[in-house]
Write a structure and sequence with these properties.
Layout: H1 11-30, H2 33-41, H3 44-57, H4 62-86, H5 90-97, H6 99-131, H7 138-155, H8 158-185, H9 201-212, H10 219-235, H11 241-269, H12 281-296, H13 301-334, H14 340-360, H15 365-390, H16 403-426
Helix pairs in contact: 2-8, 2-10, 2-11, 2-13, 3-9, 3-11, 4-10, 4-11, 4-15, 4-16, 5-6, 5-15, 6-7, 6-12, 6-13, 6-14, 6-15, 7-13, 7-14, 8-11, 8-12, 8-13, 9-15, 9-16, 10-13, 12-13, 13-14, 15-16
Amino acid sequence: MHIFVPSLPNLPFLTALTRSTARILQFAQLLGPGLLYAGAAVGVSHLVQSTRAGALYGWLPVIAIVFSHAAKYPFFKIGPRFALATGRSLVQGYRDIGRSALLVFVVFTFGTMFAVIAAITSVTAGIAMYVFDLGSDPAYTAGAVLAISVVILLSGKYHRLESIMRLMILLLTISTVVAFVLALSSGRAPRPETVSAMIDGAFLAMLVKLMGWMPAPLDLSVWHSLWAVQKKENEGENFSARGGMLDFEVGYWGTMVLGVLFLGLGALYFFGSAASLPESGVGFSQALLQMYTAELGPWAFAVIAVAALATMFSTTLTVLDAIPRSLAEALKVSGFKGGKVSYSTALIILAAGAFALLTFWAPSMTDMVDVATVLSFGATPVLAWLNLRAMRLPYVKSAALSRGEERYAYICLAALTALAVLFFALF
């Protein structure tokens, strides 16, 4: 009787595989603030706005996605760059520019934060209601999402956010890439005759709503600086400036790729067809999930539903954590007593205000999202200018912008300002 014993792979191969795995794990450990950035960015802007833009205008809005990433890039990059070079957050940088700069940041944050959280939570609640077949009032479902999020944040905060984000972003990314490739290979394409005569006022309005949170509101550069400082404190010398910037680049450009994929899914499935995306949270969620199951099969419903819901819930957690954290930091550097009490108080006020907005105003999910994204778009040039001013502070010499970087940043600032002025002048 002969027993077959398979031969083992040669040792050099095993050594190379072990080294490659070790490098991947080492790189994954660097990804913290960048994943939190991606978690905050990949949410409403991608699942809702990118898909809607593709459904309404086909592939044409891809120009807005690329432009928005290119124009906002220098200002988002300042967040981790400033923090890793100085050990301070951009909130502290604004304070060092002057109290008026810090006040502008606080006013803009306070003026948009309730609408931002209400928009994100309404999307999360809509997906939850469809997935679990809930018949409750959308506002009450959103209230439950907010309550659960507050409890998690008050008990866990940063480290739990980071661990949740790794898995959920990976799962949603893989599902989206596969669905997109299968949709293309199946021959789906927009009808050529429906492409003409689309560039009008409504098209400009849709682009602004898309760019407002594409890849994210510029407030996220401030949040990223706070996360980077926290990560540096936790990791010490193990978290280098080079690693931190690589973390940012992966998160930033990864969100652009995902934005194009979601736009493409919207274009391939809805543009030029009789079908349209509903405005309600439940209806929109149903249409969104059906895009995936149409290509991947009914078996994929549970996987995609969990990925979409978890991604939106992670976005809710991330933004709910970031806004109170930035306000607490602003109070701290301004001379007021900050710390945990300020964070907790700001968190509860934010959640309560968002719930009140959803309860007493109660617009459709898409209307709530549109209001929030337009407000963020209007704030973008101001926050971009503050970020540039922060990079001119004397103690940022080691990471100061080069002449070319500064020129590019000012060109981007001029373009974003011109678009904001044009939009608010017309609408």
